[in-house]
Design goal:
Strand content: 15-25%
Radius of gyration: 30 Å
Structural class: alpha+beta
Number of domains: 2
Number of helices: 13
Order of helices and strands: HHEHEEEHHEHEEEEHEEHHHHHH
Number of strands: 11
């Protein structure tokens, strides 16, 4: 019956078919990008994600001008004294000084290439530098993998020829998470061999995200010394501490921790800090503009599809009146119209997806903002061609079917609730 009605109204259906086909074809890439980005941001969580509200970050600011003949000790001694002062506050569990931001940035300087000594092909990983002896891993809440030294021991790793890596990177490079003592080649992302160096793996930690909207779990942590005289201070509060009260109290100018000429300022939770930092980044602004463009495009094609179905249903008001006059139930009429629309949507989406498949086979499906290499978990559906394509195709069909259902719902109800005699006069 559905096929018969489908063929009977083939003239009207042909126009709708072209409309849905164009929508399905043109919207596939946009929908693919939206699905992968949403999955990467809200669902693909790293195993080592740490609690970010009890982790605070502030900047150590110098309140007076430094003299040009000051020694390194006279410059940095007050900074270490300020760190010790904060460490002894009753709500504080641990403190760490860093030269630069740890997570949440978008600059390309964060990533580089990495490989094993015997492998010629490189992959991409994020670079994070920490200050040796500053309780970095325990303050940030980075969890060592089984068989790796403790967080306290990893924070004491020294020497720029040593490193700590994430669990996914260890498994990808060496085929095992037990990578302590192994060596890797780090650097040379622009194919400059002079920038490469050999690093010994001193420990492995659970995966953490470097950028919230990406699925990168590959990280290399390299120890260095403190060189910035205005460093960041990371503060891990005790689990029972009230972080809101702590931030409010020590952000007051008269209560900010201070030692000599140095003061801890702009204290906020790490969660708020990275959110604010990401919104200021060029990558976030470009992503927002791209998302706005895709949203406007998708809204336009949705409204076009809705309008087309509305017009076509109104043209069938007389047919609906005839069926109602012969005693057909409204529910049965709606099911008949919906089945036609569902079949039409399936055929149009199938053809549109078959067209897009040709592009997808040339590696044009969205991978979630990758730079040069695969992301952290090669086993997830995004990195597998057919699961990726089929999942996005399935979601697209369901979404198009929902749009089509909405497009036929209101005009169908209006037509079905007309008295048969009025509906027969409609034309």
């Amino acid at each position: 019956m559905t096929l018969k009605n489908f063929w009977t109204h083939r003239g009207q259906n042909a126009f709708i078919f072209v409309e849905i086909l164009l929508t399905a074809t043109l919207s596939f890439f946009a929908l693919d990008a939206i699905i992968v980005t949403a999955y990467s941001t809200y669902i693909a969580r790293a195993d080592g994600e740490f609690e970010k509200e009890h982790l605070l970050v502030g900047e150590v600011k110098n309140t007076v001008a430094l003299s040009g003949d000051m020694s390194r000790d006279s410059i940095f001694a007050p900074i270490y004294a300020l760190r010790d002062h904060v460490q002894h506050l009753p709500e504080v569990q641990s403190v760490s000084l860093l030269n630069e931001v740890f997570l949440g940035r978008y600059q390309q300087s964060e990533w580089d290439s990495v490989r094993t000594e015997t492998d010629t092909s490189c992959m991409t990983a994020y670079e994070h530098r920490f200050v040796s002896g500053e309780h970095f891993f325990e303050t940030l809440g980075l969890t060592p993998s089984p068989g790796s030294p403790s967080a306290e021991d990893l924070s004491e790793v020294r020497g720029e020829d040593n490193c700590v890596i994430s669990r996914s990177l260890a498994a990808r490079l060496f085929g095992t998470e037990q990578a302590v003592g192994r060596r890797l080649v780090w650097g040379g992302k622009y194919h400059h061999e002079e920038d490469q160096k050999y690093l010994t793996v001193c420990g492995v930690v659970e995966d953490v995200k470097s950028v919230e909207s990406q699925r990168y779990f590959y990280s290399v942590f390299i120890p260095i010394g403190l060189w910035d005289n205005s460093p960041f201070m990371f503060i891990r509060l005790k689990s029972n501490a009230d972080w809101k009260a702590f931030v409010a109290r020590y952000n007051m100018p008269d209560l900010r921790p201070q030692e000599g000429a140095y003061q801890l300022t702009t204290l906020e939770t790490y969660k708020d800090y990275t959110k604010r930092l990401s919104k200021m980044s060029e990558g976030h602004m470009l992503s927002s503009m791209f998302g706005l463009f895709l949203s406007i495009l998708f809204l336009n094609v949705m409204l076009g599809t809705l309008g087309t179905f509305w017009l076509q249903i109104r043209k069938r008001t007389e047919d609906i009146g005839i069926m109602r006059s012969f005693g057909a139930k409204r529910r049965d009429i709606f099911k008949m119209i919906w089945r036609e629309a569902a079949l039409l949507t399936f055929v149009a989406c199938f053809v549109g997806q078959a067209i897009w498949l040709q592009f997808a086979m040339n590696d044009l499906i969205y991978k979630g903002g990758q730079y040069a290499a695969a992301s952290g978990h090669e086993t997830d559906w995004v990195m597998q061609f057919w699961p990726h394509f089929l999942i996005v195709s399935g979601i697209q069909y369901l979404l198009m079917l929902a749009i089509v259902t909405l497009g036929i719902l209101i005009p169908s109800l209006i037509a079905m609730y007309k008295k048969p005699v009025d509906a027969l006069r409609y034309e």
